[in-house]
Design goal:
There is one protein chain. Helix content is 30%, strand content 21%. By secondary structure, the chain is an alpha/beta fold. Strands 3-2-4-5-1-6-7-8-9 form a nine-stranded mixed β-sheet. Strand 7 (182-189) and strand 8 form a beta hairpin. The longest helix is centred in the middle third of the chain and has 17 residues, at 123-139. The radius of gyration is 33 Å and the shape is elongated. The protein starts with a helix and ends in a 30-residue tail after the last helix.
Length: 303
């Protein structure tokens, strides 16, 4: 699914969540290269790495479709040069203005990284820009088909990650495999509220082409014990109980032979299956403990 997501792109926000143990910029460049090959213009807002570092490794064909909005040189605007991007420019109107000057046809917007912005701007305002930017750009005649953002997951509390995941069309969480290639856990929200999740091994080839390497077992990702792991004994939580939670075969048959309460008699079943006769009937089925005396029907009353 990751290979398909990179090749075809997604309509909306795509989050690439990495960590210290598993970097995600290489996969981010795979999205960039695939968008350029589809003929889209790619706008990169870079704060984490310089422009030369981000462009490294791309073919001339891909590099020619990149528009770098450099926020690395002077992110806080201290030099006063005014040529680069600053943190104050991260607003929907400012970004739309920059995109409209160069965008032609469908565009992909890349944030490297979203974490840099979240650590320096109010979190609600960052979420607001992410939600409003595609609509405002569309009004200005710029179609942002995909917004790909690199997110360093270990820098943010779970509440912020949960809010960002809710905004995204797709979330790719990167994990380091157990002595093997990296693992991508992809959550893709497709149309008609269909949600697809998949775990898979992958690698990035020269030129940032993505290659699928198969799917890992659950234990390879989470470290959990599977039924096939004979080296570890799994404790039975019901082993030391003072009562039995399971029925023997004889107990099960005895249980099934007991009639259920309020079961209909054959007479009542037959009457209910017949058509209406115009007369009401009252059925009384005495219990085993009932003591009925026909001569004195009120002998159970204390009068």
């Amino acid at each position: 699914m990751l290979e398909e997501l990179v090749a075809a792109g997604a309509e909306g926000l795509v989050l690439l969540q990495d960590s210290v143990s598993c970097e995600g910029r290489t996969l981010l460049k795979s999205f960039v290269a695939a968008s350029a090959r589809r003929g889209e213009s790619v706008h990169v807002i870079n704060f984490d790495v310089p422009e030369e570092g981000f462009k490294a490794g791309f073919t001339p064909e891909v590099a020619s479709r990149l528009f770098i909005h450099d926020g690395f040189r002077d992110p806080l605007g201290w030099s006063g040069a005014g040529s680069g991007l600053t943190v104050r420019d991260f607003s929907a109107p400012q970004l739309v203005l920059r995109l409209s000057q160069a965008a032609q046809g469908p565009a992909t917007l890349v944030l490297d990284s979203l974490s840099w912005l979240i650590l320096r701007l109010p979190f609600p305002s960052v979420c607001q820009v992410l939600a409003q930017l595609p609509k405002k750009a569309n009004i200005a005649g710029v179609r942002i088909r995909t917004l790909v953002a690199l997110l360093h997951g270990d820098l943010h509390p779970p509440e912020q990650l949960k809010a960002l995941h809710a905004l995204a069309r797709a979330v790719v969480t990167l994990k380091q495999g157990d002595g093997g290639p990296r693992v991508a856990v992809t959550l893709h929200r497709k149309r008609r509220n269909k949600v697809v999740q998949k775990k898979e091994y992958f690698t990035v080839l020269p030129g940032f082409a993505l290659k699928h390497l198969g799917e890992p077992s659950p234990a390879a990702v989470s470290g959990e014990v599977t039924e096939k792991d004979d080296a570890t004994d799994v404790a039975d939580p019901t082993a030391n109980l003072t009562f039995n939670l399971r029925l023997s075969e004889a107990e099960r048959r005895a249980k099934e032979s007991v009639p259920l309460p309020y079961q209909f008699s054959d007479e009542k079943k037959s009457s209910l299956l017949q058509g209406p006769t115009g007369q009401g009937k009252i059925y009384y089925e005495p219990d085993a403990a009932d003591d009925i005396d026909d001569e004195d029907p009120d002998d159970d009353l204390d009068v």
